[in-house]
Fold each of these.
Amino acid sequence: MMPARTLLAASLLLALAGCGREAPPAARLEALAMTAAQSQSAEAERQLRHWAARGAPVAQRELGLLYASRAAKVEEARIWLTKAALQNDAQAACALGDLARATSTMAGAWTWYEQAALLGHARAALMLGLMARNGEGTERDPTRAQYWLTRGAERGNAHAMFALSNMLRDGEAGPADAARAHEWLEQAAEHEYPAALQELAMQSSDALQSSHLLKEANEHRQSNWNRF
Amino acid sequence: MKYGLCWIAAMASLGLTACNNKSDAPAIEEGTTVTFALLETTDLHANILSYNYYSLSADTSLGMERTATLINGARTENPNNVLLDDGDNIQGTLLGDLQAVAAPVTCTQTLAMHKAMNTLKYDAAGLGNHEFNYGLPFLSQVTNTDFGIPGVSKPAGNCGAPAFPLVLSNVTSVAAQKPIFAPYAILPRFFTATGPDGSTRQVQLNIGVLSFVPPQILDWDQKNLAGKVAVGGAKEAATQYVPEMRSKGANVVVALSHGGLDTSTYSPKMENQSYHLAGTGIDALLIGHSHLIFPKAKEAGGPALDPSLSAFPASANVDAINGFVNGVPTVMAQSWGRRLGIIKMTMVYQGGKWVTQPTKTTVEARGFKYSDGSTTVAADPAIAAGVATEHAAAIAYATQSLGVVTEFEMSAYFALVGDVSAIELVNQAQLDYVKNLLATTTDPVLATYKNIPVLSCSAPFKAGRNGPSDFTDVAPGASAGAPVGLQVRNPGDLYLYSNNNLQAVKIKGTDLKAWLEASAKQFGQINPALSAEQDLVPSYGTIYNYDVFYAENNALLYQIDVTKPAGSRVVNLTYQGHAVLDTDDFIVATNDYRAGGGGNVPGIDGSKTIIKSPDANQTIVSNYLKQIGKGSGKVTLAANGNARSWSFVKVATAGPVILRSAPGHLALAQASGIAPIVGEGALDSSGFAKYAVDLSK
């Protein structure tokens, strides 16, 4: 959210800075991208392009994400995301994984997600876990699935936490581990994964805790409809 | 000491805000100290009374009527005080939804939550993400604020609203390029201070307040907000406004940050930005959103610190015991009014400004049982009195007529032997919804699915899990001759969980078979040669995982062979008379619990979801029934209750097979033509009747 005056002042600074200077910090570039997307700001988009063209990976990634949501710009999005991913931007690699996974063959999805996951991206680790678990876009491999779901869970992805808790409870990749399954179920519920809130509520023998979990789930029902 | 005329006038008429000009304020002696309490409520979520509108029963562990008692007590303990709210207060209970959606308050009315907050004389409030759930026009009206957004107009005149300032620092109107609320407020307060000589005197302290919401509101309320508002980072907004507030005389800057603590690298895109506000020049941090207790509860026997709050690296400098984040006193008061945050700050006047004394500053997230760890505070009667009408309206709303009658009793007593009277309507409603969605979709991917067969599945949610009286039974005794009117609550009995959103998955025949097998695990394996009694359903513990599938006109049929081990029981699976192939495509209407991995059905783990709806399954059932009400006006067994999609593979057993269920319903089984039920036996030790099951029928 940058009012026009601030944007012009910033653009002057950035234009001056563009002469052989370093790119602005990541947060600044991300704020530009937010303005470009939220306010349809051509000026913010122009500045983002300026830094993307100068090789700043965060700018390339943000420009790619911006364009990925525009039907006419998907191919250009792919180009910018690829440039960013080649500079080890995890979010870009994950976004490329998403694009690949949407195709009928899912060709390349595993590779992109793996790059992102190795860079610490939680949702990419989730996607690897689900793909390996279901044999989609890769060989079915419960051990690999549990490995990646664990990485995703450790990095805070609530969906990964829940899927992992199910794998552990049913011993899908080794002996069942009810205690760890329950820990991850609690974490998934804490992070508001809807199925986890309900599962924990139904497993709980504490009537008040159970009713509070469902109350929580109900409260967030509408705004979490597309969150996971 | 110097006393200006202005100050004398202020003392003469209590509470005047005339003295907000620095040059008029009396000089404050170096070394003067002042102690005051910043009180926080957060995430109240429309919980005004200690009441649960879904169970229609009291819940004394939550509710503002008890928070009010904590507030009254804290104010008595701390005569210098400021009461603030950190957002997410207008949405969350049936009462909130009633006042915003079902029967929206008019401009001349004030939301019940705001009435209660006005009774409690809040000093200021920030916003949370849920304030945007009901859309911008509603928010504009109930806060009596013009947002500067084209197409969003507040009714003329003054609408009922909070009597205190609302602030929001990081949300702007895209069109007007300025904040939709005041980005900050500076509240002049007159506090009793202590001079260096120990004597008391009055000082004016200007309390500056800003507030921040997560940028994700643009995702979570995309339909309401896209293109209309822009959300920037909290750190950027604080950097912009804190110096401005200081230059306007703010002595204390309080951030109301509707976000939790996330110590990872700052990004304006991150959801929980509160941690990163600690370095922006603020004096106190009031946070929320993640519904946690920070710092650790202090009462005897209080809950342990949440694991996520004890997992920060030491370098993050988060003191979760005493309530400091990078040296800034910080509090999060859980949710639903269960806690009151109290930052008791001591400041000393040094070098011409007020400086916090951290060693004399304490932080507490005070709960209802703070006095001794077991006694819950009493409710403040003033709160209930103020919202009595609204409370009664919410209860009436939950029990109002749907405009449709039923000619049959819808129960789950015999759901596990094929009865679908409590399930078919849910499936019909879900199926109808998904079919309509696919028929009218503009989504290019969904449009390619228009010819894929649509199924629906649903489980008997209340079927003995909590004992013999825990069975769905809507309209007992209903018949064609004696139809029974259905209430809004009844969809809640048919569809138990109000938290579920409808979702649909796209699967193959193999997945369908695995799913049916997963459901069929609920049965015990019956040995036809055994003469001893065998229990058809040994446990009702996970009966909510017994999905019953249905296709329009009962086109999907299957049988369950309970003599086989779990995993190999489902046979004769046909769709429209043809055997289901492994490669067949199906779309299945279900809910977010199942589609997201609940029950761990193989392959159904969030990876196959093609439709995510913001509509609740319970509402979809309710709307379907209302629609029937407008049509024939009734639901009947023939149209809505006896399309039995599954049956047991017939087998004669040497010994008795029983189904445990609520006693006294044999006549219902017989009248409904549930052939396998041939008698009702004695009660078991838990009070279930043991119905005799003849699997050869």
Amino acid sequence: MIHVLRPGLFSSVQDFGRIGFRNSGVPSSGPMDGIAAMLGNAILNNDQNDAQLEISMIGPKLEFQIKTKIAITGANICPMLNNKPIYNYKVYIVNSGDVLSFGQCKKGVFAYISVFGGFQSEMIMGSRSFFKGITRSTLLKKGDRLLINELTDKSLNTSGSIRQKTDYFSIEDIACMKGPEFDLFDQRQMRNVLTSKHSISKEKNRMGYRLNEQLLPHDKSILTSPVLPGTVQLMPAGNCVVLMRDAQTTGGYPRILQLFEETISALSQKRAGDFIRFQLIN
Amino acid sequence: MANQSPTYKQYGDQAILVQWKQVICEEILSEIRLFHEILTNKNIKQIVDVNFVYSSLLVIYDNFSINYSEMKSKLIDCYENIDFTQKNNYLIYEIPVCYDPVYGIDLDEISAIKKIPVPELIALHSSAEYMIFGCGFLPGFLYLGGLDERLHFPRKKVPRLRVPQGAVAIGGKQTGIYPMESPGGWNIIGNTPIDLFNPNRNPPGLLSAGDKLRFKEINTRDYDLIQKKIKENDFDYKNLEI
């Protein structure tokens, strides 16, 4: 078990998603930064789909009650084991009684705590990803107890690290493709949307990131149609919203661009006030 | 031979959007539902998920094992071989709704503004047969078509922070049921004790796109009875099918 002494800001259990239920209005969910999440499980030799704890900005304080091994990947939230600083992208053995905590978020937004064998929280509709109305927990709370497997002697790999360039955190150009309604708009104005810098607003969460600049106000709506994480919607006010992992599955705003899996992950690590530019790939 | 002829568009590097004429049309929905059913039955292993609503169908595929052109060909091939003359296996459900003021909290306001007495509003709402055009916005939230024009009512300027589970509501030209508690700007006219979406049930959603539903007015006593039965796992959902 892991005892949650402090939950952190928006901590949730995520695995690679609730797949196959979009027709019932169920988003796929999963880690905001899929790259960092995948690396965390890889370092520990876990299954790719082993559940992890996604944390953001303010990290949790966790007390481990059994022996395990862990790795932290993604944002640098100054992790500490028993108050001594540890590094991201490195395997650490954790013993019963050890406390994992975090400090200042120095770079990025989302980090992933991977444990040996993954977190064993309830699996609903094929996934452990937290989602309101589906799993009993929506966010980690103080006092929660997280079930994990005990480290067995068979897991010989007790050390390891990788050098990870978190350069993708700093990229400004977000690669994407044309969305289904790209051609609905005057192409000169669309070029303006593509060449301008967009700043990320404070209205950002796992459902979507709202961008500030109102470059192309319009009155075009579409008949409600399916949408995807990574879909860039053009709002009537002229600004863009990028749908993220928990976005609803349908929408009525024009879909002008579609991000790639990797660029959704890169965008997820941007903070309010950061600038991006859309880079159209044909 | 299909009655309609969809277009196929690349939607990102992992999905194809298939679109019919973008109008709300029962006939188009029937064809899409059949297409969805056949795609599901074919169990094409490169397909990750299929999602349709109104006049669009989205196929998400595994782009490690198949590319856009190949996937598109498979879809076209499948669609062109469907026998659209076959009977559509949709179901009609009767969903109990209590319009009593304790549940229909916006009914008085709608009545006052439209100058239509509440019993008449209720009669209009519960006498129609609605087609389910898809699911979205929330898990289990159904998009219903067929709302009488006299019941059209604009969404609230300031959405409520909490709309209760089971709320039956009107937003603009649409009516729908909130399957779980959520913020929402639609006008609440009643509540159903039926749990339309239950993540522990298989399948989790009770009704599907392409099915039809009617609302049946019940009183608060029956509402409580049904709610109790559901809590005790003693409710026969088959009774909802007409």
